[in-house]
Amino acid sequence: MTALEEVFRSAWPVVVASTARLTRDLDLAEDCTQEAVERALRRWPAGFPDNPAGWLTTTAHRIALDRLRREATLRRKLPLLVDPVSGAGGPAVEGSAIGEDADPEPTDPLRLVFTCCHPALSRESRVALTLRLVCGVDVATIAAVLLAGEAAVARRITRAKRKIAVARVPFRVPAGDELAERLDAVLTVVHLVYTAGHVGSGTGLRDTDLTGRALGLARMLVALLPGEPEPRALLGLLSLTEARGDARTGADGELVLLPDQDRSGWDRRLIREGLGLATSALRAGPHGRFALQAGVAGLHAVAPSWAQTDWARVVVTYDALLRVWPSPVVALNRAVARGRLPGADPAAVLAEVDALAPELAGYPYLPAARADLLARLGRAAEAAAAYDGALAVTRNPVERRHLTRRRAETGAS
Amino acid sequence: MARYVFLMYDSEDWHDTVDEQGVADEFALHEEFMAAVTAAGASVVGGEALERSSTASTVRRGPDAGTRPLVTDGPFADTKEALGGFYVIDAPDLDVALSLAAACPAGNVEVRPVMEMPDGT
After folding, report:
1. For residues A357 and A366, is the Cβ–Cβ distance under 8 A?
2. CA A52 – CA A214 distance, rounded (Å)
3. Banded model confidence at residue A92, pLDDT cuts 50, 70, 90
4. What single DSSP character describes residue A92?
5. CA–CA gap between residue B7 and residue B106 (Å, rounded)
6. Rounded to an integer, what distance in angstroms lies between the CA atom of residue B57 and that of residue B75?
7. What does the alpha-carbon distance between residue A144 and residue A360 come to, in Å, rounded to a whole number?
């Protein structure tokens, strides 16, 4: 990433969010931020301003105010993002008229994230809107991430912005009891962005630009919500996963799964950072979903090898996770971990995995886990058939090559 | 303030079995709901309970002015859970509207923003 790209990337959410508070219109805020970036691209080659983020903010605000003045008559007829009279947008907008309150506030990007991840929007819309408005990712790239058409993604974003304006989704950070639930929706979006980058849709396994965006979002949430353990837990989980990044592919570009990874290739600095965050989140009180997931990732990170992993603690952590977040994917992971306990009965674990099949139709890791257990039980033909099932629902070419190799190792035709 | 319509959808089996006490209980629930709306800084601007969907008639206008409208017996969309009533509510924002919809005595509540008219009403 060039220095210029780095400036744009870190300034983008601040500029969009403060412009949105100024104009009370997300669409306009996005347009003006885009135009400010384009002006910067034309002018900055002659020399960087002293405060590039401040320059972008001021420029976006000026563009916005110009447009609002020009369209003043029309504007009065359009619904506003935040009702200036009711003060529903929080104390920062209370009683202020459009054009006042222009200085960016530290919590602006946070309001923007909570608005983009509002529960009244579909999960797909939340992801697309967060990538566009908070991260400044262009529509073509978002379409590639979501495995969708560019026109469809553009329509989805337009519809979501329109709903926010017309249905008056408030531009604020929820407080009290509401915060925990709303925060979970935000963290889920960040996690989805990371996962999309971790198992890329392209030819390679990873899209480091996207995983970097997710890490950046998680860092921003940690900085803006220092009292909340779950953003720290998410950042810990992402750091611990990211630490394994380069070890996930072998010299020939093949996928290397956790059991076979060269652990000396893991990034020790990221592991230390991730363990610190995970530990602090787990100590903070009732364990949230991301704290427990970070706990599992931490147990893998400190294990000298796959065989020497503290499987008993992994299983206990999955038990706790299943209580706070009952999901068939967690149940599958717990079953796989139980299969690693000393004296485990692969046949019993297989029965447990099979029981989850109806809920996890189309989830490629279930047939892959079945195949592994069947191979351990010496049922080669069935293992090969299960690998075929996994291949049928796996798109990533690196993952596909890995499954094909494992299938060949069963010795079945 | 923004204006929303709450469209209440429910199973209509209730109509077959309800007695006087049941109707009184239902009214009490709606009184409670309206009190909750006021307490939340919002207001009920209007609303009606509707007779069951089998009493509805649907008029379908033809594609052009010359065609005679077609009248059918029954609601426009014949669904298991039918539109049984509506409220018109003024609320500060969607978060307030959604929390009120959760307190509304109906199985399913569709919350729709009302289109703002150009004269600012």
Report:
1. yes
2. 23
3. very low
4. G
5. 9
6. 6
7. 25
* Tokens 């969708």 found at: A148
Q: Does A347 touch chain B (CB under 8 A)?
A: no
Query: What's the token pair of residue A360?
Result: 């996890």
- Alpha-carbon distance of A219 to A225, in angstroms, equals 10
Question: Nearest CA to CA, how far is A318 from chain B (Å)?
Answer: 33
Q: Please give the pLDDT value at position A195.
A: 86
Q: What is the tens place of the pLDDT at every residue in B68-104?
A: 889 999 999 888 999 999 999 999 999 999 999 999 9
Chain A nearest CA to B6, separation (Å)? 13
Q: What are the tens digits of pLDDT across the range B45-65? A: 999 999 999 999 999 987 777
**pLDDT for A322 beyond 50:** yes
Q: In this prediction, does ipTM exceed 0.90?
A: no
Tokens describing residue A158:
């337009």
Nearest CB among A88, A118, A119 relative to B92 is that of A88
Question: How far is residue A56's CA from residue A49's CA, in Å, rounded to a whole number?
Answer: 10
Residue B34 C-beta-side C-alpha neighbours within 13 Å: 14
Give dist(CA B117, CA B121) in Å, integer: 6
> What are B7's strand-pairing partners?
B86, B110
Tell me, what's the pLDDT at A273?
97
Do A239 and A294 form a contact (C-beta atoms < 8 A)? no
Distances (CA, A) of A364 to A34, A203, A257, A398: 39, 18, 14, 14
Interchain contact, A76 vs B120, CB within 8 Å: yes
Which single residue is written with the structure tokens 């919002």? B42
- What does the block give as tokens for A334? 């717990």
CA distance B19 to A102: 60
Q: Hunting for tokens 């919590």 — which residue is that?
A: A107
Nearest in space to A406 (alpha carbons), one of A284, A254, A271: A254
**Are A234 and A187 spatial neighbours (Cβ–Cβ below 8 Å)?**
yes
> Are the Cβ atoms of A166 and B113 closer than 8 angstroms?
yes
Strand-pairing partners, residue A15, are none
Reduced to 3 states (helix: H, G, I; strand: E, B; else coil), residue A367 is helix
Question: Rg for chain B (alpha carbons), in Å?
Answer: 17
Closest CA of chain A from B56, distance in Å: 29
- The strand pairing partners of A255, in sequence order, are A249
Residues of A in contact with B97 (CB under 8 A): 168
Q: What is the DSSP string of A197-241?
A: HHS-SSSSS--HHHHHHHHHHHHHHHHH-TT-HHHHHHHHHHHHH
